[in-house]
Amino acid sequence: MARQTVRILRPFWFLTGGRMKVRKLWILLVAVCLILCFLLTSYISTQNTKTDSNIGDFLRNIVKKQNKAKEIKDVSLKSTTFEAHELPLLANGEIDTRYMASVGNGHVATVIYSNTTYVNGLYSGQEGFSHRARVPSKNAIRVHFDPFVEKDISRHFILNTEQGVWREIINHKHFVVIVNIYAHQYYNRLLVTQIEFMRIGRKTDEIIEMRLENNEGGPSRDIKFADPELYNHQYGKAWKLSGQIAQTELSGKESGIPNQKTAVYVFYSDLPSKLEVNTDSTHSHMWTFITSIDQDEQVAKKDFDDATAVLITGADQKGRVSGPRALFDSHMQMWEKRWHDGGIEVDDLALGKYIYGSMYYILSSLPSLYPTNQPKNQFFGLSPGSLANGANASDYMGHNFWDTETWMYPPILMFYPEHAKDILSYRWHGREAARKRAKANGHFGTRYPWESAYTGAEVTPGRICMACRENQIHITSDIAFAARQYFSATRDMKWLNEWGREFIYDMADFWQSRVTPRKGTDAWEIKGVMCPDEYARNVSNSFYTNIGASQTISYAKYLQCVAGAAPPPDDWMKKATGLVEVIDTSQNYHPEHEHYIRGTTVKQADVILAGFPLMWNVGQDVRKNDLDVYEQVTDPLGPAMTWGMFAIGHIELRQYNKAADLFKRSYSRYVREPYKIWTEVVKGMGAVNFITGMGGFLQAIIFGYGGIRLRVDELTFDPVLPPNVNTLNFKNLKYLGSVFDFFFDQYKISIKVERVDPNHAIKLQTEDGNKYAFVQGQLIEFDRTSGRIFSESKLTCDPPVDRMDQRVAVRSLPTNRAARKNT
Questions:
Q1: What are phi and psi of 504, to 5 degrees?
Q2: Residues 548-557: pLDDT tens digits?
Q3: Considering its fold, how many domains does the chain have in total?
Q4: Enclosing domain of residue 262
Q5: pLDDT at residue 22, rounded to an integer
């Protein structure tokens, strides 16, 4: 072995003057191993940084091979329920919470049996170190028995997305124990654990002892809590924790930007070490343990007290008596209403599970749509890892990116427009920080940061990716486009006049100040940006970025007209239409940016996003070429949402077989069973639970196979069934106040109108010219074809034209080999 080591390391002898001893070789070998371990550890801790390097790719492959955890089967035959007989485990036998289900209500969330609870908007750490502040879990409660009882027990572990509850069922020949854990939808500061014991089988005088263990973990480093105080309460013993976050996001005082040390208050039930019950009892027994968390002490206390009163009286918030299950019933009813108000139904069980799982994890990170026990707090956005994740140095630390508006937002908008407004409200809430971000670089308006958290200020870790922080500015137009889609879907004039118009105008003001004249021409350009493809870090005239800037300015002019306000200065539109659109005229495709060399690897979907979601009219031939060019060079280990966009493009072109392959790729390699946990890249890699990928997958269903396009003045459709699916139903779609089911199979489309808005006379016109009026309760049926849905009460302003007048032809490529060499 020593000789082999000498032979391998002989090239490194020059480090010791060519006279290295074997002992020194071993020292060097150990040092090399330690360095590799350090690099591996560093990479893992920062693997989800929205960028990669060559060493990162190398180490990613190593982790991929070493991270092949056992796949656990989902045995449930219901699309809304994920059930298993075992839990994902680490090598040491502990629960692998990385692949566990989560519960949340938009205010609080937790990964089941983890030692952490997170609260929306609660962060600790300065700037690039800002991350979700960990509240030690009070609801990660497991029930255990002595070994003699345990040997006769079987356990089932269920996530019921329909009811928004995690359930562990413990079966014994003499009893059943059911443990429910959920984030309450009405008392939305609460996490609840309920343990129910029910006797079955023969009677016995035996006392059953249930040991209770809570995975609280160690003290939080993020929040400086005082010692727990006893909270005297009419429903048994309880406790109160109070504290402040350890560190604010900004180091100094920023005028107009909230930056105080946020307070945290936690009220929680006392947890005994054991529960005893006689199995001879003829009644079931239920114990409830609740935790209430808020930044306001009185708010946290009120939800705790009011929920406790429900437990005492057995009546829900409307006074309806349902015994000890009243608290759960009121929660479940709100989830059932939420699902009734929107969703996607297919007749394929596996696909249906992926759909329900994706909708559930996104919705559980959003606040309730319905009245809650107390007013809801300001919503602080959707992070790629959902509300249940975001620790320091993992899962993007709970930050918000373009992921929110570009990937998660569109499917939510189609079913839950009020949620969409909540998402936009976070950006409006952070407008002062965005205004300062623009001004700091000598620009006008609002420039939104690449990563934001509590204050809305830039919190991208510069130590990881300074180019992301400084150059990835397309997020401002991504936010503007989301706002454009909201108004297109709702024509919400109250929103427009209160803050929507100003919101978009300020973003347009940034773009008109960010463009620069192109020397020797009448054109305008945008230099020094990072594309959505994060391998291109500092380029000029990114095709996607230029389009977004043009659309933002044009739409701002449109909304000024709709609101009856003064139009922007004339030179704004000259800049919008005069921005360069790079095109390779010899090969009829769009280079990603002005100096892109065909064949260069790209990280993720970029140019193809012009066709969708931006709906930029590039022409069918160019659209096809763009898809073909970039499919060949997109990193196969790239993020999940990319492949759904390729699928949408090929469905547009009616290339259904190719679309089917890419659609399957969009989810099959990223979902971990049994609880449908998505990872950012290939299974086991990147952020979890990656709701960005779920958003891309849902878009492939709605806008790909549903063929739906939300345009400025109409909603168009051209549906086709996904593989192995016979029926697809978009339940309670929303458009201009109308609510309708959009059902189709191989032969026909059925539209059932549930509600119409009297302010909008909605009509449907099919491709062959047939017209139908939307009337409440009406069922409209016709042969499957394309068509449009529109309001006859049109706005008087002309919708923006998505085009630029300037094109810059770039030189044709070198060979693919040369391109790869230059990558």
A1: -75, -35
A2: 999 999 999 9
A3: 4
A4: 81-343
A5: 38
